[in-house]
Predict the structure.
Amino acid sequence: MPNPKVETRATARPGLRDSSTSPPSLGEKSPRTRSRGNAGRSPARYKTKDDMSSDEDTQGTDYGDEVDRITSDRSPRLYPELPLPLPDDFDLSPKRVPFSKSDTGSLNDSYGSTHSRCSSRSGPSSPRKDNPLTPMKGSPGKKIYPDLIHKDTKQSRRGASPVTLIFFFTLVLVSILVLYYHVEETDKLQKSKVHKKSVEEVYKDLKNELQTINAQITQPRHFWVQLIGQIDSIMVQNPRQPAIILVVAPKDARGTATCLIHKIAEAVNYAFGDSRFVMYDVKSDMHVHPRTLKQELDNVLQGLSETHAAVIHSIEAIPGEAAMIFHAYCDNENAPFKQAIIFPIIEVDYYYENLAHKRLDNTVDDLLAEIWGVSLLPKDVSAIVSRIANAPVLIKPETPGRVKELCPI
């Protein structure tokens, strides 16, 4: 005889509000009558070792009832009431409930783990982003972790990079060195015109040197008178004008003129304590443009700021436009360097014997007016000639052997 089919009915677990459950004992408070101070807390319950082992055996049944009993009224039912009777194909096997990361706050509401520690929702909540806790007191209002600083803000607070600092300090160092160099150069320019000895001592030493030269190279007395007269005019503390000595070099005395004038310029250097004298040969640049040649002459004569003697060779090769530079440096009152001796040398196509019996000043004036009058007005030529040809001197030729001995170069 076949066994009769026994209908089984799943009974719902007793909930907190189910009136069929037995009332709590006298020593235990009902969840409805608990005080507000104990809200959200599990009732105090102490288990023995036997109770704990018994709980493990009945974990699938009694533990769930215990969870439903101690959970607050606000918690949703773990198992909703099922319609009775159940259909035959109803699946009662446990299913895993999927959840997302946003549901982490309600993990305790799921009965998926057998080791979950159910705690009341009304208890202390975890720190939220909008209500952070301080590390020490746990009070709201202060954040445990500081806000992340933007990259640009971090760089601005960090300061300049090492490369920038190195570049800055290098620039400052170079500026200091350049400033120091300019200060040193200015001091040299200022000290160059300051005499290391008095003017009287300079003049005395210069005359001694000239006497030595006179003994080496024989020249007429007129030559030395003209020379000493011009040098005497600048041997004062504040001379009124520079000494301009136009040297006339005949055909047969050009080597002697070069050697003699260089010897005199060296004597001036020795007397004033200078290291060198200014020298320029016009023939080396006679094919350049007159304006360029004038600029070259200007640069050369600027060297009188550091010395007291200048020698300009072959002024007859200077065009009239470039010769105007002498108007500034040889002026009677407005010359920039007045305590200086300038030796313009003019080479003429005459022999010494032909010029020795003529008025030298008239001969030189006519020659320069002929050369510079091509490109300059007569008044401009007169202004230049009057400044550089006021005291011309004629050089007497010396034997070539003697010249080569005194001036080997």
Remarks:
- The domain at 199-406 is CATH 3.40.50.12190 (Rossmann fold).
- The first strand starts at residue 243 and ends at 244.
